Description:
Layout: H1 4-12, H2 17-32, E1 34-35, H3 45-51, E2 62-63, E3 66-67, H4 73-90, E4 95-96, H5 102-113, E5 119-123, H6 139-143, E6 145-149, H7 160-170, E7 174-178, H8 188-198, E8 201-205, H9 210-214, E9 227-231, E10 242-246, H10 251-262, H11 268-282, H12 284-306, E11 310-311, E12 320-324, H13 332-341, E13 344-345, E14 347-349, E15 363-367, H14 369-374, H15 378-393, H16 398-413
Parallel strand pairs: 1-13, 5-6, 5-7, 7-8, 8-9
Antiparallel strand pairs: 2-3, 4-10, 9-10, 11-12, 12-15, 14-15
Helix pairs in contact: 1-3, 3-11, 4-11, 5-10, 7-8, 12-15, 15-16
Amino acid sequence: xDKKNLINHTISxxxxxxxxxxxxxxxxxxxxxxxxxxxxxxxxQEVIKTMGSVMTNKYAEGYPGDRYxxxxxxxxxxxxxxINRCNKLxxxxxxxxxxxxxxxxxxxxxxxxxxCGDKILSMNLRDGGHLSHGHKQNLTGRYFDISTYxxxxxxxxxxxxxxxxxAKISKPKLIIAGASSYSRIIDYKKFxxxxxxxxxxxxxxxxHVAGLIAGGVHPTSVGIADFTTATTHKTLRGPRGGLxxxxxxxxxxxxxxxxxxxxxxxxxxVIAAKAVCFKEALDPSFKEYAKKIVDNSKALCNFMxxxxxxxxxxxxxxxxxxxxxxxxxxxxxxxxxVLASAGIILNKNVIPYDQLNPNITSGIRIGTPxxxxxxxxxxxxxxxADMIDYVIMHRNNTSAIAEVKNKVKDLVSQFPVYSN
Length: 420
Ligand code: DSN
């Protein structure tokens, strides 16, 4: 494939001038800012090209060999290819690659095994959990009976004994292990023991760490949890989408719960791009990438600590960490805004036992998947920590912010994305 033409193809194929301008602007933004959002990444040009292909034209409700439409021979091959590569990557015997997103994947698992009113035990949102694990506005919060576990107030790490105690009290039908802002290894085996003790199903939502698991730098949940759900666009660096992995004994209920249970036609252009992503993640170089993400995360976290920032749980084992800004006299909201004005893009985040509301927050979340894809290493992590600190300490000084904005542009221009 001629890499040179891929991005040009993506842009120049858009004949709607207004849209072409906007896409170009977004490409320029991604190239000129420092992307530290833990759930974002730069997917390959092959993945982008595949998503922008004629595969988007095809309806294919059903599954390979059993569709509700004619003309599905090729999409059958594509979906089989994605399934086989996904199973190889995660060492599984069954997966469903149709979920449009991580939330859709979770929803399909809930539909497979739960009835309205059934009990779920999941991580508190404030301590790192996810909206789709029981937030009151989410369908989980509306249709299921949710109990939550917190991290230990001192260590800010999951207290497995406390999870066990809560599981014995609430007797959930489903326990969820997984988070969107938790920087420590999740021990799926301990969750399995607890689930077995109370007769619960275990679902691991590995959306954030899927790429780290694929790269061998985080323990796997596959073969331990009954159901593993993931997104394909975070550390896995593929197209925006979801997937479900389980033992094949659950294939019938999972397939039915995805389609027709909670989705219609699969997005075949995205499934094709997932297959490309899995191939890339099967390449030995992906293991090196996953290791570098964690090395960079640990380094950046340590540099921030050296500058006097309090890190939630004292450090990180994965691609992200949370900074508690309380001792710096700035909220997460204010910090994220002022950093963005200097071209440093991250998000405000609640920290465990946060006294501030989720729109304000006491913390920020910092992640390294995207900057690692760009090729940055430890030296750049030092520069990034210096810039974050400088902006926060000079937050009312517009010329200091402008100075950092130029430094950011200079740094990212040395690690260009989508430029060849
Ligand atoms: N929105 C994702 C994140 O940023 O973690 C989770 O869905």
